[in-house]
Amino acid sequence: MLKLSELDDELLWELQRNRIIGLGERSFRKNYYPQLRCSLSRLERFRALLDCAGEMILLVALPSGQVIDANAAAAELLDLPLDGVIGQRLDVLGFSHAEVILAELVGEQASGGSPSLHHEVALQAGDAPRHLDLVCRAADLDGVLYGVLLGRDATRRVAAESRLRLAARVFADSAEGILVGDRRGRVVEINHAFEAITGYARDEVMGWPMHAFVSSRHDPGFFRSARQALKADNSWQGELWSQRKNREIYPLWLSLSLIRDHRGRVQNFVAMFSDISERKENEARIQHMAHHDFLTGLPNRFLLIDRLTQLLATARRDGRRFAVLFIDLDRFKTINDSLGHRVGDRLLCAIGERLRGRLRTSDTVARQGGDEFIVLLSYIEGPTEVVRVCNMLLSALSEPCLFEGHELSVTPSIGVAIGPDDGTDSDTLLKHADLAMYQVKRRGRNDFEFFRNEMRVHVTTLLQLERDLRHAVERDELEVFYQPQMDLRRGGLAAVEALLRWHHPERGLVLPGDFIPLAEESRLIVPIGEWVLRTACRQLAAWRAGQWPELRLAVNLSPVQFQQAELIEVVRSALDDSGLDPEVLELEVTEGLLMDNRDLTLQALADLKAMGIRLSIDDFGTGYSSLVYLKRFPVGQLKIDRSFVRDLLEDRGDAAICETIIALAGHLDLEVVAEGVEQVEQLDWLREAGCDRAQGYLLGRPMSVDALERRLSGDAGLLSLGSA
Ligand SMILES: Nc1nc2c(ncn2[C@@H]2O[C@@H]3COP(=O)(O)O[C@H]4[C@@H](O)[C@H](n5cnc6c(=O)[nH]c(N)nc65)O[C@@H]4COP(=O)(O)O[C@H]3[C@H]2O)c(=O)[nH]1
């Protein structure tokens, strides 16, 4: 629409003149023209006024909502030229709920009232949506109904409100506790999490000083440094001890910030914090686990080394001595193997408790693993003090413990090293205490010994022996000897037991007792055991093909060999290679192995049975046997330990044990072999008692192949004895 102000005077005149029909020129000029001129000017001023208004003004037809007129602010707000606004309907111009507004205006007018209606509408004008605060009113102009809409851009306010709402939501729902303080640090607002963490309700704490929540554990220096950081950076973060309403002290992680006004004056404090007690507990638990033995809860090797290092440092500084006690439990393995790991574990815990209970709190009791404990006696006055402690521990640890109906007792072997005299670093001290302990074991256990320098020589020898053993197979230094077993029922040679010998280049013949434990410890027994089995199977096949077609073979298997997944494959392949029938092979295992509940062992025992191999229990009667195991496992033979055979003629107890084992085997349909038969009388006694086989020096020592063949083919051989 053309504005009146834009028309030049002449044109305006023409226009007005044409409109005024029937008035004479003169009369018009005289009577109406000044009046008209005045009205037009007013109209023009009014128009300019509307256009100057910052608010949008729309005149819309009702009920259609078509814009009849609009001011400049409307065009600007709608982001359209004015003539793009006029003539358009409100909904087309992007007004949300235009229909509702129009209906309300019509309704209001119809009901006789015409109050202003307030609406907040969204306006989809241009790219960015805007918001308007609308004041609407219906107006009847000369009988025609119009709507007058005054609108103010509320986009910024709506956005600010929405931001505020969001902030309020975040504040309320935050899992972190939030406290807002005024410029003097008095609480003016808290959120729900604050209430949940501290136990205080909102109303209780309003106006409290913020420092009321900090525990008195902190010294003034702590607050000083926090204040300095706040001053410099407007924020501070750190760990803090706080106190809940129930007086519980707990750790929290706090972020404190300052809010300043435009002149830089502190207006508010905002404290955001989270309860980190759980995290701290977890950290402490992990820390504890990393430094303590899982089973006994005692310090582990890491912590032990740490304490040992500290003792060494103080010893260097102030010259005080301390003692390292290396404690190993005698024959613990037998208990573990025979009664199971559960009983073994409980015994270890009981020993740990006893050690802890008998020593000073300043001393360290650690578990190295297995049945080894280490005690650090800090600051000792002299050797007599250590002797007194060792004697006390010897008697305390050997007191019996009662578990699940078993009365168990173990004795300790204790090796002592004095720091820093016997070593200036932790490794050396531990090694020397270990060496001393080893000497106790060799001397017969259940005692203590101080480290001496000569002990080192012995250990070096052992290490050398282990090194040599590694090469023994490839250097062809090993040999299988065979010891005959006599059939006591029919006479004659029933079987041979394969027994390993080592021809050491410097030491000469080394017996198994001196190297099998080393081989087991280093797991060298696995390849060596395989070599023995293959060699013995080949030899048996040769003998069976020749002079002794009925001969059987007994081979020792170490528990360590049962820990290799390939054991069954190795046995099968040794049999296949030699062409032997599995029934002729007897594998000797210890009683303890049957009590080993490890899957690998149980599976291997079952597989051996399935193959048809006979299992023989070596040294029967010396371990913690349970008859249940004899039933449960595919045992075919018991070997009476030679300690019972040795004195059976003199000792009624030993004779009774031999009789009982023979009777037991009879009932369970097992074969019995008596070991260590050295006298003809023993042999006769065993035969009388119903023992199936005998083995011992009387019938032949373990021998090389040649020696055995010579011995058994001679007149004084086993056969002649057997027929005696
Ligand atoms: N005093 C006395 N002793 C007798 C008599 N008859 C036999 N012996 C000895 O008793 C041991 C019997 O073997 P073991 O109980 O299986 O005990 C064996 C066995 O447990 C182990 N061993 C030997 N060879 C092997 C092997 O190839 N593998 C494994 N894993 N262990 C083996 O070493 C142990 C000791 O073997 P050796 O020194 O050969 O000792 C042999 C044998 O020489 C006797 O009448 N009187």
From TrEMBL:
Q: Which GO terms describe its molecular function?
A: cyclic-guanylate-specific phosphodiesterase activity
Q: Which InterPro entries match?
A: Biofilm_reg_signaling, EAL_dom, EAL_sf, GGDEF_dom, Nucleotide_cyclase, PAC, PAS, PAS-assoc_C
Reaction(s) the record says it catalyses: 3',3'-c-di-GMP + H2O = 5'-phosphoguanylyl(3'->5')guanosine + H(+)
Location of the EAL domain: 462-716
Q: Which UniProt keywords apply?
A: c-di-GMP
Say which domain of life the source belongs to. Bacteria
Q: Does the keyword Ribonucleoprotein belong to this entry?
A: no
Q: Where is the GGDEF domain?
A: 320-453
Q: Pfam families in the record, alphabetically? A: EAL (PF00563), GGDEF (PF00990), PAS_8 (PF13188), PAS_9 (PF13426)
CC cofactor:
Mg(2+)
Name-wise, this protein is cyclic-guanylate-specific phosphodiesterase
